[in-house]
Amino acid sequence: MALVVQKYGGSSVADASCIKRVAQRIVATKKAGNDVVVIVSAMGDTTDELLDLAEQVSPLPPGRELDMLLTSGERISMALLAMAIANLGHEARSFTGSQAGVITDSTHGKARIIDVTPGRIQEAIDQGHIAIVAGFQGVSQDTKDITTLGRGGSDTTAVALAAALNADVCEIYTDVDGIFTADPRIVPAAQQIPRISYDEMMEMAACGAKILHLRCVEYARRFNLPIHVRSSFSTKEGTWVVSDPYTEGTEMEQPIISGVAHDRSEAKITVVGVPDKVGEAATIFKTLAEAEINIDMIVQNVSAAATGRTDISFTLPTADSQTALTSLKKIQPRIGFESLLFDDQIGKVSLIGAGMRSHPGVTATFFAALADAGVNIEMISTSEIRISVIVEQDGVDAAVAAAHRAFDLDADQVEAVVYGGSGR
Amino acid sequence: MALVVQKYGGSSVADASCIKRVAQRIVATKKAGNDVVVIVSAMGDTTDELLDLAEQVSPLPPGRELDMLLTSGERISMALLAMAIANLGHEARSFTGSQAGVITDSTHGKARIIDVTPGRIQEAIDQGHIAIVAGFQGVSQDTKDITTLGRGGSDTTAVALAAALNADVCEIYTDVDGIFTADPRIVPAAQQIPRISYDEMMEMAACGAKILHLRCVEYARRFNLPIHVRSSFSTKEGTWVVSDPYTEGTEMEQPIISGVAHDRSEAKITVVGVPDKVGEAATIFKTLAEAEINIDMIVQNVSAAATGRTDISFTLPTADSQTALTSLKKIQPRIGFESLLFDDQIGKVSLIGAGMRSHPGVTATFFAALADAGVNIEMISTSEIRISVIVEQDGVDAAVAAAHRAFDLDADQVEAVVYGGSGR
Description:
The structure is a homodimer. Helices cover 35% and strands 25% of the residues of chain A.
């Protein structure tokens, strides 16, 4: 008997009929001989509706109270789901994050899980019940206040609970079939990836692939917990996220590149004419760090000997741009840089693949593909298993398609070349 | 410095602007130098909407899950109220029933409070915060599951918490000015009652006065906690419910009758031709008790010597009629009664007044008034401070108006005669 943890997002439980359909799927898993723990998000637009209510009452609601408000969303969906399961003749018990033992720090709105003590969930499993747990929420260790985990929180709840319960698999249900080699809306020939490593998945999540959140993959990696990303609208196998996808009894050959990710949510700021003295760059990034801005890529030009000045460019979430520009303006007199340039019409295109470790030609092939597609590269950043470039936003689609093709990821090629006709 | 517990019902927090108005009232109470604890119900129709959702998912939802679902309603209203207060520059903290230490038994849907351990509320008060507590909900002592208190639950939460905190007063905010001598929709000359005893208020609640629920008054009486029923739309004094309303520094003379209550929610069943043998009545009422039906009034005719048979009539909530009739049909062969009569076109009219203890003529005056109004009495029941009669439903309004007039409760008379021109 396996212990299966399943997570259903808001679109899977958007209304009563969706909830009944999900209930049938859960009961089918139970009937197949598994113990089942389900993590559920709030129904459809509930969270937005609650945020709207909060806004009507207060322009800047306290985090503690906003968390109290938002967590009512999962309370509704989980109770309804438990009812729907009971209606099918199976025992289900719903539990809040607090009841499920999801212990967090006290950072309201983006709390981090610091412990999971799932005594009540284990008890429910031992009694043969299906446990339904509210995603996205926990209780703070210090203050015993209700907290929420922020973006991607329900996925993180699922993985954390699965790890604490020593589950065999954590199934993340979504509205697509799994993780693809690129966004199918941009690359119609994109392929579903059958298996991918934690490291690659983390890079993809960090580079704009939205299906799994970075924190959830980090958590799964730490506990070596297999994640199965799959569609709640079919019973097809989805994408397995595991530690070593190419040695665990698969006949697949490792592709050089697993996927092409893109991200249009960043902007670029250039600090022009920074005096080329020790410590000036440090002052700039210390200022940005104090403003709690996450910097992504950084490029510093070689100093022009004639002027003794250099330019520093960096990318950051577009949403943080205003704060960043204001902070930098304040230190302009002290640093003595000349001006600030701002560009939010950029996009990031990233190649991710553990295979590139052993294939030195990847960068050359990538850049050649972009050049052939007429896309200019503005910035470059690399890790051991990733190459990212910043291009103008209008060039993102062409860049993604060109890279996808250049690395033989297009559908017909994949079947023939990379996966050796395994047929998955 | 006084500790004031305030309870606001669903209509007082129906939308964002209502919530902001209530927040201002709460802050005004705090600014006047009081510590404030607020109990709040779910917004407007939230509970009905949640019940509707449950119905869409399951025809017979498990009580545990229904309670989990419904308690999200107060979670929303209390968080929004805390935000609105914060917006006015005061610190507020919202607490679920469980966090507030409302410990109940495990009877989902109508749990009884068995203990209140308001450590976190006391702590919030001690820190100068305004505590906002979810009404209607608690946590079961045995299973640690979320429970709801059933009808009138938020009032009960307010009184129980006020008692546990040793509050100076529990203010129950509603959409009318207080308790009236009769329903003003039936008797336009009805007067607001300035002060009333727990005993009288309990009789009024039991006889159909809907403003305070019986359990809440029982609880207040046990802890001798003053309740102040008042309007959330004005700052006028409302009705004080206290142990002895006429000696606590008031100049008011005790009226003979405090009020006239009525109730149209009961039906009458008559068991015709019950063999006049020992134990037959007991069997009938044991059967009804086992079906969990609350009987109100009972009348047994004198046995007709010729037939050796008698008729037994009783009243019960109309909603329970079908269950009662079915249960009785089942025992008909065993008891051998002749038939069952059912009448849901009845109404109960009750006179309540501690003063009737020392005024023996009350019953005669009451019955004469009903006779003059042409209303026939079908059944009679009395307590030390109450007389109730069952009349045909069409006669209820006339009976209430006649009784109100007969005991000098009409507005102009009250000012002149009973309250001696105290002007309240």
